[in-house]
């Protein structure tokens, strides 16, 4: 399998999107379990796993930015999600002077649907939601005439500020319900603006697609991420809760926005954000390496080589080796398979003979 592996499609998808999984995750579940176990004594392994999760976050950021022709470069976490939102907002601001908006019948229907969904809120929070609509949106609806770009920008900024008021760190579930209803209202406005400006519809659609992805990123961060870095499992949860189709039909069919990326990440990278880089773990790793050298220098060298496989360069190089085999690899793998048990017994016999000649065999001579 190492000579000529069958690459998991989920691994291929992640690598195509700039994520380099650690070698154990590439080789399969058994190797991944061994890798997870070794991360508790080797800080380099945990660091490689953590790096892959961060790259997964960047891949998700790029899903939001690619519709407007941009790629993300920078740190991940709360600042990263904010930077993605700022880039989308800037793209929209650049377009706003060319736009105008008059609510249409579809917008009225969207508001009716949002109103129907709001009945699940507790009464106090539903009143807060409607107070925002009454204060900021209703006056423009009463005018009936089109809004110019600057007025539209002000309206969106006002609703956006109210969303941040309710969608804050440690917000209650009831507050998040208000934020979600306001986000749906803002999405309805933007969809209506797109319909009202056919000359700019393509650019608006690209920006709106980016915002739809951003909503899921923000929800992934809000479900308990560490420092704003979400795991594939947290993104999957956000994807499901963001699916507004009947009975979450799109999610059930595997077609929900970002579900393919979340599925690949969860399958390959797992469900947790590894804890690496702590002083305690680094000390434990040093003890492990030092202790190994006391038993057998070869064991220490093996641990050291393993650590190199989880450095940024080593992890990328090993991933390429494990997923992009040369042309002769299948033939070599076939030869090993054909050799079968006799070849394996030959290897074992040579190993045992070498151990008998050693004055200090590793593993207690077993």
Describe this structure in words.
- The chain is 70% helix and 1% strand.
- It has 17 helices and 2 strands.
- The protein is elongated, with a radius of gyration of 27 Å.
- Strands 1-2 form a two-stranded antiparallel sheet.
- With 366 residues, it is an all-alpha fold.
- The chain starts with 8 loop residues before the first helix and ends in a 9-residue tail after the last helix.
Question: What are the key terms here?
Answer:
1% strand, disordered C terminus, 366 residues, mainly alpha, two-stranded antiparallel ribbon
Would you summarize the structure shown here?
By secondary structure, the chain is mostly helical. It contains 17 helices and two strands.
Most strands sheet: 2 strands, antiparallel
What is the succession of H and E elements?
HHHHHEHHEHHHHHHHHHH
User: How many strand elements?
Assistant: 2
Query: Shape from CA axes?
Result: elongated
> Nearest-angstrom radius of gyration?
27 Å
Quaternary structure state of the chains depicted: single chain
